[in-house]
């Protein structure tokens, strides 16, 4: 018997909800951080059709052996810059990911990623650690964007 569960991840960034929302919905941004450490996601392997019912697809490449993993989802809700929801229909009957961007009104935004109907294989410590490395990569990318805005090159 297999089961499903829920996961919630929280991160606070020094960035606006608008910028963070755009990072999560633009291939040119996603290519810099999408996927766990040790993978890359070429911009040409990211499909975004940002509308309810639109496609969200990424193909991550394992940097060590070149193997690939494609994530296929369908957008369920799009409320820029507060909320983004997609469903992966091929994962255990529909894993749902909800990302909420909470403006802390001090120049920071809390990003809450809540997943439901998460397959048992994704609930283990190793899978959660891999997901956390993706969030770490997002942290680094957003910090780089902020630094570039604060210290533009002449």
UniProtKB/TrEMBL annotation:
Q: What is this protein called?
A: Uncharacterized protein YndB with AHSA1/START domain
User: Activator of Hsp90 ATPase homologue 1/2-like C-terminal domain: from which residue to which, for each copy?
Assistant: 14-142
Gene3D superfamilies from the xrefs?
Answer: 3.30.530.20
Pfam families under this entry? AHSA1
CDD domains assigned to the protein according to its UniProt record, in alphabetical order: SRPBCC_CalC_Aha1-like
**Which protein family is named in the record?**
Belongs to the AHA1 family.
TM ranges:
none
Supply the InterPro entries for this chain. ASHA1/2-like_C (IPR013538), START-like_dom_sf (IPR023393)
């Amino acid at each position: 018997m297999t089961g499903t569960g829920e996961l919630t991840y929280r991160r606070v960034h020094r960035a606006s909800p608008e910028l963070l929302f755009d990072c999560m919905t633009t291939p040119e941004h996603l290519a810099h951080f999408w996927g766990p450490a040790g993978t890359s996601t070429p911009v040409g392997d990211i499909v975004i059709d940002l509308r309810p019912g639109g496609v969200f697809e990424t193909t991550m490449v394992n940097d060590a052996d070149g193997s690939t993993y494609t994530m296929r989802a369908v957008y369920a809700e799009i409320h820029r810059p507060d909320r983004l929801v997609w469903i992966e229909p091929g994962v255990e009957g529909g894993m749902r990911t909800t990302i909420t961007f909470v403006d802390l009104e001090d120049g920071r935004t809390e990003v809450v990623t809540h997943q439901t109907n998460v397959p048992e294989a994704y609930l283990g410590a190793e899978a959660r650690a891999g997901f956390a490395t993706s969030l770490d990569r997002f942290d680094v990318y957003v910090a780089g964007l902020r630094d570039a805005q604060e210290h533009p090159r002449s």
